[in-house]
Structure formats: structure tokens, C-alpha cells
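Hi F.,

I've been meaning to write this up properly since the lab meeting, where we talked about keeping a consistent format for the predictions we share between groups. The idea is simple: the sequence comes first, exactly as it goes in, then the C-alpha cells exactly as they come out, then a line or two of notes. No screenshots and no reformatting. I'm using this chain as the first example so we have something concrete to point to.
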Amino acid sequence: MNKARPKGLAPHHRLNAGEGPFYAALDLGTNSCRMLIATPKGGHFQIVDAFSKSVRLGLELERTGALSNAGITRTVQALHVCAKKLRMKGVVARRLVATEACRRASNGEKFMNRIRSETGLKLEIIRPSEEARLAVVGCAPLVAPQAKQVLVIDIGGGSTELVWIDLSEVNPAQKTKAMMELSPGNGTKGIHMPLGAKVVDWISVPLGVATLLQRYSDVSDDSARFALMACYFEDMLESFSPYIEGGSPTNMNGLQVIGTSGTITTVGAMHLGLKRYDRNLVDGMAMGALDVNRVVDKFLKLGPVGRREEPGIGRDRAQLIMSGSAILQTILRIWPTKHIRVADRGLREGMLYSMMNADGVFEDQA
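Output, unedited:
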């Protein structure tokens, strides 16, 4: 296991409130509302404030096709807290996004208007390609200089993004930079590819930990439900074909898998035997595929009651951990790798880096 902190992002600890300038990134997902406020510092950034709340916005989405009134109420309450934090910090730049639940919901746009009216916050519903791009940018500091192919996995509440990037023609010293500078454009399916990096393929599967669980909520047997979720998710990956030009499969020996999600960080924490989550130990760690299988086997043996009582999982995550594990284990079975790099980072970090990079603050502090 590699516990060394990767370059590019500083630890998530808070600074004095008087420092700045401040940038904010908010990610409203199917299950959670999360926000980071950060300031550029020494070529990276440091967090000055953070907010995270399980709002279960998409709780009934799979069944009804709409956001529930209860989920909307919980989310608006959380966003009032975020709006207050933004006003108090005097943020100079912000990006506030909503993802799969609001993309799919029949009342998604109506909900955006209500948020604007009641909280003053203007959220944008981003496209799947932008969600995938931001996940790559957020995880870029974890790429290894020797990596030739990189598979970034982002398991969300309502969707799962996979992005396969060919870095074989990129200078090792520029691989992180190449991934961080991916931008919307005319590249593969709407993603621009800088410095010789190639987005070979990407997919946004409209299934995440919440929606996949909802689909099989009527299956009472724990093991049977897990198997059904894994099979269904595998079927949804049929159109994702990451092959290099000419049709030959990519070189698995040079493949690095980077995974970001509550599922993956929870599996990492359980592998380390943590009773209380510690981001400094989990973020950036390497975990073997066999280690993932052992942890998932433990989840199955614990059963629903045991998972709720397991401090390393937590009650909020206990219901969702098996659907997330089914997604993760399926991906690692299809594309075998010795290790997966665990990322406690994602869309919010991607947005922060993109905003600061566009403002040139990193160059100013070089």
C-alpha cells in the first residue's frame, strides 16, 4: 500500500477564515449534496470549508421518474446552508452543478428554478461528458508516471462514469498535466485531448448505487440481489469498448485504474481495518483486486444487519454499499488489474482546479 500523499492537491484541512481568494465547487448528486470552498496555495489548493449531506434526492427516481417532494425538501434545506457559507466567505468564483438525478427527472428543470428562487443559487445540470471530464481532472494527481493506459471510475448515486485514456504518447512528467487539462471540445465524444493524451472511450451508465439498489429492491435474498445487480450492470457496459486504433486490445500491463466514490473509499477503509474513516490514509492508497474481493466477501457475510452495525461502513452507507460493490467488482473482473488507486476526490476537486487554472492563479504562485 502506498500511503504517500500524491502531488497536486493539499490535505483537506481548513485554513484561517481571513485568507483567500476563495473558490467554491458544489456537486448535487442523486444521494448527496457536497461542497468545497478552497483557496489556491503554492501551486495547488487547500480547503477552507466543506459541506456534505445525504439528501437522498433520487430516492424514488427509478420507480417514478421524478424527484420526490421529501427529497426536494431535504435538498433545499441543505442548499440553504451552502448559500450561507458562500455569502460568509465572499467567494470570487463558483461552480454549482447537478448530475444524473436532475438530468433524468421529469421535474428536474422545475427543481432548478425552485432552488434559484428559494436559495439564490443557480445550479447547472451538466451533461454526462462533462461529469466524466471533471472526474478525470479531479483524479489526475494520482496518475503514475509509468501508466500507459488509465481507466478512471466514478461510481455515483445515479450514474457511473468510466473514462479510458491512452497516455502512451505523453511525456511521463506531463501525464498529470495532460489529464488535468482535458476540456470540452471536439475530441472523443465531446472531450478535448491535450499533450498527446487520447480519450479512447468513455461511458456514462445511468446506474449508480442508489438507482441500482432501487431496481432490485423487491429481491429479498441478499446474495441473489447482489448477483442480479452485478449481471445487470455488466450488460449496461456492452457499448463501452476501449480499444486502441486498429482494433487490438489495450495493453493491460500498462493499465492503471483510479476509482473515486463513497463505495471505493469505504472498501479501502475496510481493507485497512479502519473503525473511523481517515482521508489521509485512504486517499491515494493502492489496493489489490484480490483485496477488493476479500472486502466484498466480508460485506456479504455480514448481511444487512451486520453491515448496518459495522463502524467501518456506517449507517448512511450500509444500504448502498452492496450495489456499489457490485459495480466495482464487475468492472475489475472485466478489466483485470493488479491494483486500483483509491481517490477521495472527484467532481468538486475537478471544478476547483479548472476554475483556478483558468484564472492563472497556479502560474502566479509557481
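Notes:
DSSP finds 15 helices and 13 strands in the chain.
Residues 185 and 192 are 5 Å apart (CA to CA).

If this format works for you, I'll send the rest the same way.

G.
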